Amino acid sequence: MNAEDFRLLYDYNSWANHRTLNTCVQLSAEQFSRDMGSSFRSVRDSLVHIMLVEWLWLERWHGRSPNSYAPTSEFPNLESVRARWAEIDTDLLDYIASLTPEEVQRVVHHTTTTGVPQAAPLWHMLQHLANHGTYHRGQITTLLRQLGAKATGTDLITFYRERAAQVAAKA
């Protein structure tokens, strides 16, 4: 993949995150944080996990290796998640927009939150993070359905179709 491919992939990632957040407005405060026994207790905890992992990887790509991130309790409601995620999303998309072909190939060294040193090409990490979000958004879809809410599609092909329709409408 090249830098332009990653710009498109991260436009999709942002689109899918926004659609997922917008779908969560159907939930009551209790439903949003209800323990559903999933990988992350609740819809809120799942959203916060995706959001903070995006922040964590972005930090690593900037040469920093945080050893922790904020607890989910710092995000008591959907609006608090949405507000923090908007900041992270802007920073992430700005970073992706700035990538050069050389940067995509660069090896990034970092330590995990438990202090284990790791290194990999940036493009591996970029693919991983986008895939990570897709995986957990799928879990959120299941949680929404279990809560009786209507989920919305975040398939990549839907993104492509919407994007093509927007281009056609402008023509």
Could you say how many structural domains there are in total?
1
Q: Major β-sheet, in short?
A: 2 strands, antiparallel
Helix/strand/pairing category: mainly alpha
- Approximate strand percentage: 5-15%
In a nutshell, what does this entry contain?
The chain contains 7 helices and 2 strands, in the order αααααββαα. It has 171 residues and is mainly alpha-helical. It has one domain: dinb family like domain (Four Helix Bundle (Hemerythrin (Met), subunit A)), CATH 1.20.120.450.
Description:
- With 171 residues, this protein is mainly alpha-helical.
- 64% of the residues lie in helices and 6% in strands.
- It has a single domain, classed as dinb family like domain (Four Helix Bundle (Hemerythrin (Met), subunit A)).
- The chain contains seven helices and two strands.
- A two-stranded antiparallel ribbon has the order 1-2.
- Helix 1 runs antiparallel to helix 4 and helix 1 runs parallel beside helix 6.
- The longest helix has 25 residues.
- The two termini are 29 Å apart.
